[in-house]
Amino acid sequence: MCPCPTTERRAVTRFENRVALITAAATGLGQAAAYRLAAEGARVTIWDRDARALQEATDEGERRGVRVRVRQLDMLERGQVEAGVAELAASEGRIDVLVNNIGGSLHVPFRFLEQSDEDWERVLALNVSACVATTRAVIPVMRRNGYGRIVNMGSKAGRFGSLFAGTPYVAAKGAVQAFTLQLAQEFGPDGITCNTICPGAILTPRVERFLGERQTPEERARVVASIPVRRQGRVEDVAAAVAYLASEEAGFVNGAALDVNGGQAMSI
Ligand SMILES: NC(=O)c1ccc[n+]([C@@H]2O[C@H](COP(=O)([O-])OP(=O)(O)OC[C@H]3O[C@@H](n4cnc5c(N)ncnc54)[C@H](O)[C@@H]3O)[C@@H](O)[C@H]2O)c1
């Protein structure tokens, strides 16, 4: 019999002995990514500010046969972010994967002239500053081990504009991708790669409600008809992309923006 492991076995253990931190991940895309990495052998910690959602994520993980560790913190508080990273590094001894999932459009007005300075500040703080603070705390830990995979959650909005989220979100996600490029260049020599995933609309309960407010059923049907694969995205679509970019085998992919949008927006 061939001594090499089967493809199936390799897939299940891809993240064995790897430690992953996924931010703002009690629900939605981050939660799905957490279950995916944990199912493939990673020791996963998720952060969120919502204690009840963290408990539900733990319970749902158990139902699915995967374990995720949780830590409640508010990522808008830099001290809490730094303490969270220090605690994880001390308990695990390493952080191999950072998924900067924190972000969101915060339902600010769609139209530019209706947005306030405060709308801009809140959206940039959540999508950019919280991601920067976490990354700044985690990179020294990755550097010590000469290995790291940073996966930033961008958006189709940051590359192609948005049909329902306003300019602060679009600008913030563009900044996340620009941040990615420079990290990829600066820390590649340390064995650390950095890439962005750019999902189109993914049907989480929150996005369902949001689309319901901002688009009529006819508009929504037209949007789906314009997507080449003729469906909207699922959290599992994004989790699969996270797992690839977070894996050791993606080591030569650095500074990329991976579109996960069914072909709704494409570029060469
Ligand atoms: N859902 C989509 O259609 C979509 C599309 C493209 C990109 N994205 C991006 O993917 C990421 C996840 O999106 P989602 O739709 O799954 O989000 P979500 O709104 O479903 O979940 C976000 C989580 O973040 C937590 N959170 C919010 N503020 C926090 C804070 N200050 N500190 C700690 N936790 C906090 C919430 O409690 C919640 O559990 C975001 O960066 C978003 O911009 C989402």
Question: What's the short version?
Answer:
The protein is α/β, with parallel strands linked by helices and 268 residues long.
Structure overview:
With 268 residues, the chain is of the alpha/beta class. It has one domain: NAD(P)-binding Rossmann-like Domain (Rossmann fold), CATH 3.40.50.720. The chain is 50% helix and 14% strand. It is built from ten helices and seven strands. The chain has a seven-stranded parallel sheet, with helices on both faces. Strand 1, helix 2 and strand 2 form a beta-alpha-beta unit. The longest helix has 29 residues. It is globular. It starts with 6 loop residues before the first helix and ends in an 8-residue tail after the last strand. Bound molecules: nicotinamide-adenine-dinucleotide (NAD). Nicotinamide-adenine-dinucleotide (NAD) binds next to helix 2 and helix 8.
Which terms summarize this structure?
single chain; 268 residues; alpha/beta; Rossmann fold; seven-stranded parallel beta sheet; globular; disordered N terminus; binds nicotinamide-adenine-dinucleotide
Tell me the layout of helices and strands.
Elements: H1 7-12, E1 19-22, H2 28-39, E2 43-48, H3 51-64, E3 68-72, H4 78-92, E4 97-100, H5 117-145, E5 148-153, H6 156-160, H7 167-187, E6 192-199, H8 205-214, H9 217-226, H10 235-246, E7 257-260
Parallel strand pairs: 1-2, 1-4, 2-3, 4-5, 5-6, 6-7
Helix pairs in contact: 2-10, 4-5, 5-7
This protein binds nicotinamide-adenine-dinucleotide.
